From TrEMBL:
Sequence ranges of Polar residues compositional bias: 1-11
Identification of the protein by name: MFS transporter
Pfam family, one: MFS_1
Alphabetical UniProt keywords: Membrane, Transmembrane, Transmembrane helix
SUPFAM superfamilies to which the protein is assigned, alphabetical: MFS general substrate transporter
Domain Major facilitator superfamily (MFS) profile: 1-389
Residue ranges with Basic and acidic residues bias: 14-27
Upper taxonomic lineage: Bacteria, Pseudomonadati, Pseudomonadota, Alphaproteobacteria, Acetobacterales
Residues covered by region (Disordered): 1-27
């Protein structure tokens, strides 16, 4: 099939080769950034598992444990814009090298620092380090329009492998050696990410223009991201533990923990197929379908089919995770892409931070059927408003 593009001698031979080289470079950079985050992320996810169960071993109360777990997300809400600006000035390599050192220090700190006021700075350091690595994985996956959804799917699978294995190994190691020692090992594991961070593109990043104030009136996709965090990251996770305790008093922790691990397994298994489907049918269209199906899963939980609905939501999250970044990047001007991705992550963190608070207050007071049906309706409405075209 002929095209209208004018050619020059040698153009037809070099242009496909150049495009192939660009795609391979984008694939490698995205893969390396994903490995960096996958190797450092277990330090955070295992803390969510062990800190509430062994709060006294860390010298904190259960309430202080909740503060420490929330601090990671709260500092990102405040600091994402600053981290995005630093990423743009310094480039992926320098930003991720610093982030790896920060993540390793924070994770090792969980093993040795006594009490909440010593652990809190470690959590804040981890939150800022994660923000830099999270921006890198999304920005590098979407740097080239061609194959962005495919790279995003592979990226999510690589990233999720770390927490999935870390949760299993951390639980076993904590039983053998105690909960705090686990984090010394995870801190050393984080340093394994340094060679992959060094391979990332270096030099100063492009001088990008901010995409407006992050706390101005949110765009429809920002609203969807907030609602996703509120319902699927906040309400679902806390609600699962609450409802599991009522349904299985003797096995609630095991059942809820298995569902949490299954979340990452779903991303490993379903992330790459989601990316390929998005390349074929369009990321926004697929994200709309998966979001509406996730809303249906919340409704299924509400009507009393707890485990059927939970498995449905967990599986759909594996399909959903790679999709928002390509949708946001495709809608943004090139010079606004990193800022738009940071803003999207900020709104998700706000929703995910509010979600457990809402669930903790309402679950004992409001019948689960109304709470989950309301969450399902909210997610469905936000999805249609943001993604219908």
């Amino acid at each position: 099939m002929q095209t209208n593009r004018a050619t020059t001698p040698g153009d037809t031979a070099t242009r496909p080769e150049a495009e192939g080289t660009d795609r391979r470079a984008a694939d490698r950079a995205s893969r390396d950034a994903s490995i960096v985050l996958g190797l450092t992320l277990p330090g955070d996810t295992v803390l969510y598992l062990l800190l509430p169960l062994h709060a006294a071993s860390f010298g904190v109360t259960l309430a202080e444990a909740g503060l420490l777990l929330a601090a990671n997300r709260l500092v990102r809400i405040i600091g994402y814009g600053w981290v995005a600006s630093f990423y743009e000035r310094s480039g992926p390599r320098n930003a991720c090298l610093l982030a790896v050192f920060g993540a390793a220090c924070a994770t090792a700190g969980y093993a040795v620092l006594p009490g909440v006021w010593w652990l809190l700075p470690a959590r804040l350091l981890w939150g800022l380090s994660f923000a830099a690595m999270n921006i890198a994985t999304q920005a590098l996956a979407t740097a080239e329009v061609s194959g962005a959804s495919r790279r995003s799917g592979v990226s999510r699978a690589i990233i999720a492998t770390g927490p999935m294995l870390g949760l299993l190994a951390g639980a076993v190691a904590a039983e053998v050696a105690g909960p705090r020692v686990v984090f010394l090992g995870l801190g050393l594991l984080s340093l394994v990410a340094l060679p992959f961070a060094w391979r990332l593109p270096g030099g100063e990043g492009p001088r990008l223009r901010a995409a407006g104030p992050r706390f101005a009136l949110p765009k429809p996709l920002d609203v969807w991201s907030f609602v996703q965090g509120l319902t699927l990251d906040g309400l679902f996770v806390l609600g699962l533990a609450f409802l599991a305790a009522a349904a299985l008093p003797q096995g609630a922790a095991l059942a809820a923990g298995a569902a949490l691990s299954a979340r990452y397994l779903a991303e490993v298994v379903l992330g790459p197929p989601a990316g390929r489907l998005a390349e074929k049918f369009g990321a926004a269209r697929l994200l709309l379908l998966v979001s509406l199906a996730s809303a249906a899963g919340l409704a299924v939980i509400g009507v009393g089919w707890l485990w059927v609905g939970s498995l449905l939501v967990v599986g759909l999250r594996g399909l959903l995770q790679p999709l928002p970044a390509p949708v946001a990047a495709a809608r943004a001007a090139p010079q606004e892409r990193v800022a738009v991705l940071a803003r999207l992550a900020t709104w998700r963190d706000i929703g995910a931070g509010i979600g457990p608070l809402v669930a903790g207050v309402l679950l004992p007071l409001v019948p689960a059927v109304w709470l989950y049906l309301g969450a399902a309706a909210l997610l469905a409405a936000a999805s249609v408003a943001a993604l219908r075209r």
